[in-house]
Amino acid sequence: MIIKGKKNRYLRSQAATMKPVLQVGREGISENLLNQFEVLIEKNELIKISLLQNTAVEPKDLIDALNEFDENIVPIQTIGSKMIFYKKASKIKNRKYSIELEKM
Q: Which branch of life, at top level (predicted)?
């Protein structure tokens, strides 16, 4: 799934003031990281991840690993070591951004 145009700009603007809630470090892409990501993305729909300097993980590797983990995860933007991901929440009470996207 790819989000383009107004929807992508909206999500990028919402993530601009966010701080990274997850960091990929020396351990790289582990089962623990994927489990934490799953919990955070389900609760927030839109999250920012930071790749630390001591990691060997490239942004492309993380995108591929997350797509294998769940094909509904959408990479929105990658700038340097910061990455933004979106996934529509399954619980209605956690939907904030998806409601706005449906209006567009």
A: Bacteria
* Token pair listed for 11: 């999500």
Length, in residues, of the chain: 104
Q: What is the pTM (predicted TM-score) of this model?
A: 0.89
- The H or E element containing residue 102 is helix 97-103
Per-residue model confidence (pLDDT) at position 70 = 86
Separation in Å, CA 25 to CA 5, 29, 39, 45, 63: 32, 9, 19, 22, 15
Amino acid code (one letter) for 60:
K
- What is the pairing mode between strands 46-51 and 74-79? unpaired
The pLDDT tens digits for 2-13 are: 788 889 899 999
